[in-house]
Protein: Homoserine dehydrogenase
Amino acid sequence: MVNIAVLGYGTVGSGVIEVLRLNGESISKRCGHDINVKYILDLRDFKGEPVENLIVHDYSVILNDPEVKIIVEVMGGVEPAYTFVKEAILKGKSVCTSNKELVAKHGAELLELSKAQKVNFLFEASVGGGIPIIRPLNQSLTADEIEEITGILNGTTNYILSKMSSDNADFDTALKEAQNMGYAERNPQADVEGYDACRKIAILSSLAFGMQVDFEDIYTEGITGITDTDVLYAKAMGASIKLLATSKKVGNHVYAMVAPMLIKPTHPLFSVNGVFNGIFVRGNVIGDVMFYGSGAGKLPTASAVVADVVDAAKHIGTNIMTFWSSKKLELRDVKAVEHRFFVRVAGCDDKARALVNEVFGEIEEVKVDGREEEYSFLTGFLSEAAFEEKADRIGKPLSRIRVMF
Amino acid sequence: MVNIAVLGYGTVGSGVIEVLRLNGESISKRCGHDINVKYILDLRDFKGEPVENLIVHDYSVILNDPEVKIIVEVMGGVEPAYTFVKEAILKGKSVCTSNKELVAKHGAELLELSKAQKVNFLFEASVGGGIPIIRPLNQSLTADEIEEITGILNGTTNYILSKMSSDNADFDTALKEAQNMGYAERNPQADVEGYDACRKIAILSSLAFGMQVDFEDIYTEGITGITDTDVLYAKAMGASIKLLATSKKVGNHVYAMVAPMLIKPTHPLFSVNGVFNGIFVRGNVIGDVMFYGSGAGKLPTASAVVADVVDAAKHIGTNIMTFWSSKKLELRDVKAVEHRFFVRVAGCDDKARALVNEVFGEIEEVKVDGREEEYSFLTGFLSEAAFEEKADRIGKPLSRIRVMF
Structure:
């Protein structure tokens, strides 16, 4: 029997208890040990609930109990999670977490500490909810040099963009619907501004390239600027707008960004709709692979946490090597990154057209019925810096979206 | 340094050497050891080629060299692979294989033997080429009870069906094109009759349910009966015909089958086209996940084999537990399995219609321009047995395809 403690009895924490109860028998078989939840740390008491007797309010009870071998940290946020996790590792306990803020900020350090302590720090649930992606990156794609990771890593924004497309809804209407469905929080900033996706791509990039990618260094743009008109144009091109978090090797450099982008049906992420997540990986020998599933939600996330608990229980006394050094990876200046851009400008008289053609050279015009008052087009490949300079010369565009084709 | 030997210098074997040469440096870092190919077993000599000095013709040289810790078996076929692999395990060597025939037939036994010998028998490349699926099933979905696995597991047939759909080609034309592109063998039987997919779903089902699923027990139907007219009807329904290999828990029973099926765009496998493979898994807590990538090909397959070598090298002296007992799983009789069916019958006069309606009850008619001489429809849910009995009463249909919606 392996004793564990769960820090935080919120959505994911209660999901962990539910999964262990529901599938306990087969989990024990696969694990080779019974998993016993000895403590749950929470500020609340949960009087009268089945977990009441497991609740403790004082972390030191857990920390100082040598019977507890694995800590499940599902509180979220950097502190006190970081302090708790570090103390646990130093006490020789393995930690399984769903906490993307913690992993993005302190992943490298906590992995090094775990290695030294011969315990494990596992975080499958921190990216892509239930989708197996951390373990495949660590253990299955070990023969490859990763060239690109591009993900739809935030279910809320994907739901909003899917809804805008399927219902011709504007951003505010789609956001409200996402909030009503419980897919978006009342303060949706972390999702719609791309901050959540940014932390997740920082984690994936660090693992893919084996060095510390700081999330603060990643250019991040959310979806609040996307309008129903943009979606109309996307459809006219047979394309779709997705909030993509991407990191890519170009020559000897890696760049990373989070931004809405236009993609076509030939891209495996095109059909990832609604609250689903998808993660596309290109390796130099495996070619293209894609992982798809529920990116959030109580049970899918708990499934990933419990799978980590199983792995930690199977590896008591042994560290599972993870390739993420604390050495900082200097990302390529985003200004130098090249894309095509989709651009809409107000006015489509001959003068406007002539100016666009003079500034951007060869462009591909995109037309949508009923929008004859604007001039919209796809540019050729341009660096971000070159695009900005050109955009300034034609006046502020109505919108510009990066293009993945 | 870890010494390995490669059995068979064919497509995959030479791919393994190429991947180790190309990515050797990062593989060593991830693995913690340098991987050294000490021998290659092949009947040929490869005079003048860089591998010439590694070639041996006598397996006992490899078997009796205690320095060789890992055997890569990429010969294919049950014998002599089975004998070689068994001997290697008994000598305390780990084995990594891409050989689906071997794994489907002897997987359970070789896993038990490996456990006893404290070595590893790994076979990521035996299903889905490079796509990580075996390791995710074994190590990432451990918190779940698997309810369904459905895969597009054969790139050749998926290419043919995609081509029939995109070019309105008939089966023979699409097959010829697949052969010209090198995607289909001159004798394409193992692919087009579904035998290849059958072995792969047997392996996945055994792992998902933890018991031996014999491939001989799996109802298998290929794609040679699919016509361009069927594809026209599929398009008219907004659907697609895919060769799906599926195993599913219904109540306390599992059924498994390989057959062409109609699926709609809402299914994640719908957009898996061309030579790509996709594997859809439904767990009772994780929900739906899907894995996508190159299902075959020299480098993708070699990527999976080398990832297994890395794992084996990291686990010398320790067995990675795999949950696949040799106890036979009795599959549900396929006759009891329920589907909807798409049916085409010759003749669409009132008499024919009346008979169909009398026999099948409520049906959904499907029309295609220029095919007014036939009567085509979707049935309600029927067991295979009930369908056969009803189909007999209306005379032999022009075609019938199972429906996934």
About this structure: The two ends of chain B are 53 Å apart (CA to CA). Residues 365 and 377 of chain B are 4 Å apart (CA to CA).
